[in-house]
Amino acid sequence: MSLVNTEFIKESLNNNVRSDGRKLEDYRDIEIETGIIPQANGSARVRLGNTEVIAGVKFSVGKPYPDTANQGMFMVNGELSPISNPNYRSGPPSPESIELSRVVDRAIRESKTVNFEDLCIEEGEAAWMLSVDIYPTNADGNLFDAGVIAALLAIKNAKFPEYDAESGKVAHETRTKNGVKLQNVPVMVTIAKVGDKLLIDPTFEEESIMEARLNIATIDNGNICAMQKGGVTPVTNEELKNAVKLATSKGKELRKLINKY
Amino acid sequence: MAGKSDTPLVVKGKRIDGRKANELRKMTAEVGIIPQADGSARFTMGETVAIAGVYGPKEVLPKHQTKDDRALIRVYYSMLPFSTTDRCRPGPSRRSKEISKVMIDALEAAVITEKYPATAIEIHVQILNANAGTRTAAINAASLALANAGIEMRDLVCAVAAGKADDTVLLDLFQPEDNFGQADLPIAVMPNRNEITLVQMDGDLSSKEFDESMKLVMDSAMEIYEVQKNALIGKKENKK
Description:
The complex is a heterodimer. By secondary structure, chain A is α+β, with helices and mostly antiparallel strands. Chain A has a single domain, classed as Ribosomal Protein S5, domain 2, CATH 3.30.230. Helix content of chain A is 27%, strand content 34%. Chain A has helices at 3-14, 95-110, 143-157, 204-209, 237-258; strands at 30-34, 42-48, 51-62, 73-78, 120-122, 126-138, 159-164, 169-179, 187-194, 197-200, 212-218, 224-230. In chain A, helix 2 (95-110) packs across helix 3 (143-157). In chain B, the strands form three sheets. In chain B, strands 3-4-5-7-6 form a five-stranded mixed sheet. In chain B, strands 8, 9, 10, 11 and 12 form a five-stranded antiparallel sheet that branches. In chain B, 28% of the residues lie in helices and 30% in strands. Chain B has helices at 94-108, 134-148, 175-179, 207-238, and strands at residues 10-11, 14-15, 27-31, 39-45, 48-58, 72-79, 120-129, 158-165, 168-171, 183-190, 195-199, 202-203. The longest helix of chain B has 32 residues, at 207-238. In chain B, helix 1 packs across helix 2 and helix 2 (134-148) packs parallel to helix 4. Chain B has one domain (10-238): GHMP Kinase, N-terminal domain (Ribosomal Protein S5, domain 2, 2-Layer Sandwich), CATH 3.30.230.70. By secondary structure, chain B is an alpha+beta fold. Chains A and B meet through strand 3 and strand 6 of A and strand 5 and strand 7 of B.
């Protein structure tokens, strides 16, 4: 980013104003649609301002892992596809996209919102594999939060296909009415540190000048279920506490909105 | 081309989705859907949805691929993992690499590459939902995105497949017809110049059937062009 832009963003932050006019603790407008991909078992599109993310769920059947013989499998894959931002390159997954996948995976897995025993078909033999793929179509910052909302709502939107135990085949054409029952609504709130300021829901511009990033996911009762720090600049304990406070209160607000879908 | 379906695909000239043999699926187009891109578009043909983002003209990396007299066109076609009946593995496959390659040929013909020497124009296309005809929807979206990026072009590129199912030549196959069809013939044309920029075919077609198929495609190209043109004009009118 140009120096003049960087200076402008930092200068404005001194007056607690962001380059898009938001206050430090303002979230961008959120738009949500679900069931947008007929071929997917479940899907959702989330917009945070200009950021747009699509998540799709596909079910398949596999053998459970030996150490969790009575549980299904769960996998999140995210890709920073170059269609969404001029700075992203195609090719093997970048560390950033692997991080996105794993952070979103963690938020959902650790919230225990999916009871993985519900995904078991026959102990030790067959279980559902729940694959969530997250694709940004326009990456203007904070893919983490958008990714968690999209992934969660895609799972909520999903219906199992028919499974024939005899043949071991999945009939994708036949949808059952049964879905995955969510126990919880994990919400991630991402906070960027620029100078001594903490900003919620950073844009791509803000991400490119931020010194550190904190992803904090909370569950219904306000507990934290996942965290991640990014960036080489350290944060103080106080900053971290403030960030958690911010993430919890903002998460509560967001949860109300997410629960409508 | 898996051969015969258990149930008939064409009954008394009507297809199972109610279309006539020479009828396109419902199309929609919209440009400017990816603000980060220099140009972008969404193009849908029935349930098939393609989005395209154009970045460039920009610096060529790696540098040795630079063409001093014209622009280098790159196409990255991909199907998202959830776009198909069974999840498809993300990342480039042999199929997607081939389609990217033929898309370069199909689109480069329309771009006046000499206007942008020593640059790269990158076109990324993703299939969000696949219901046959993904490469043609991809070309329609990509051509629109190029125009939306303000890149000088000779014409828009319009693409659609013809094919054969139940021994009948059909325009714009959808999934059951593609799965159980006997032939698939994706074609891209520059309709105002009557030039064809993509021809692929697999299956079984007699030369008469081939002529019929081509006629169906050529006759419908202007219809696709109108949808693309309206999307481009609509953008200008809606501009704030």
